[in-house]
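Q:
Just now I want nothing more than another pair of eyes on a protein record. Here is the record:
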Amino acid sequence: MGCKAAAAMGLKAGGAGKLRLPSVVAAVARSRMMKLWVLRATTTVLLWTCLVQLTAVGETWGPRVLMGWPSCRTARLAMTEPVAEKAVLPPRRIYRNNGYLMVSCNGGLNQMRAAICDMVAIARYLNVTLIVPELDKTSFWNDPSEFQDIFDVEHFITSLRGEVRILRELPPRMKQRVEVGMFHSMPPISWSDISYYHNQILPLIQKHKVLHLNRTDARLANNGLPLDIQKLRCRVNYGSLKFTPQIEELGRRVIRILRKNGPFLVLHLRYEMDMLAFSGCTEGCTREEADELTRMRYAYPWWKEKVIDSYVKRKDGFCPLTPEEIALVLRALEVDRSMQIYIAAGEIYGGKRRMASLTSAYPNVVRKETLLEPSDLRFFQNHSSQMAALDYLVSLESDIFVPTYDGNMAKVVEGHRRFMGFKKTILLDRKIIVDLVDRYKSGSLPWDEFSKLIRSVHANRMGSASRRTVIPDKPKEEDYFYANPQECLRDPDLLRAS
């Protein structure tokens, strides 16, 4: 009974089966816990107060106290590990945001490249936030590449932060508006000056908050724009639109391979199936090939001109030169037979048969596919814009650049090479060339005379300084801004002398 009574003293009524400490012991334990809690709380408050005070001391003591004095170990690390300098970014431009501009580019790589430059300039002028442009995925090439697959998107955004705010995507609230259709979409009018965007486009942005421009090619005028707008177009093109590190590195590798074997000429040979079908040019093609190209042209509804007289178009100089014609021209221009000829183009229509004249005259004809291993290009296959980016880089660095047709790449590369110091670019006069070629092939013009005339015609067509042609009310016929960005060239005295 005594044991049971003693045990019962340690039980608390209502706590069946739960052992409790005697009241005195419990009180002591609670007192100790309270003291410990107070000590911890006091210590935490003191440490936090010290930290705040140290931070408030400012620049004199803060870095030393908070970061610590250098120890022997940190001194050794400082001697062996270089400290990467943080990139200096331009200060953000502070302005009242008038809304958001979304753009969907159309066309090939260089058509989109020029359009992106225009859209940045327009966004800057209108004080709107630009969303990283969407690239064309529905054109003939069906390239699924996104902006960040071709261009260094982080560099694009940060390098322009002093001019315009650029976001990768709309803020959540604005994205919700777009998802429910609360935005406006339209194609702007081609070749418009900046007043059109101020008077017509800006009110739409302010009204709808988000404006989507669904076509962007050739939407800004070549001439008659403020100097700061023209210079910003150049800054974007030659500074902010860098290709991705992977594309840049592969381009440098191709250039190194070419340089090991001496000087090289880049031939932008626009004799691909899509170009021939679009232009309706069939010089040198078989009847079956001509029919195939015609069927292809009719298959694409946006290639509006259907019935084309290839003979007349060629005589007027509106067809890309054939491989046979360009072989004669290069020989007449006295390009050394041992010169490396890099073909910047897609698959040549007609293959080896059509290339035979050129490879016979110039045996060192190469392409990226012959200079690189298949594994190097594995990730670029079926991505025509990324392949074109490689050709663009090689074209810029070539000793001579020769485009056989005045498409977007030819024009943009021409302008970029002018910007780089008027690097030699042979601008072929196709109308005169086809006439001379036909006379030579018919036997009415001897080779010596043919060669002399070709050199004479092109003596002043080597990419040197010249004034951009202005044709009021006919912007499509005047010189293209990106082919000759004279406002941005580094030696204005050359322009004054031209």
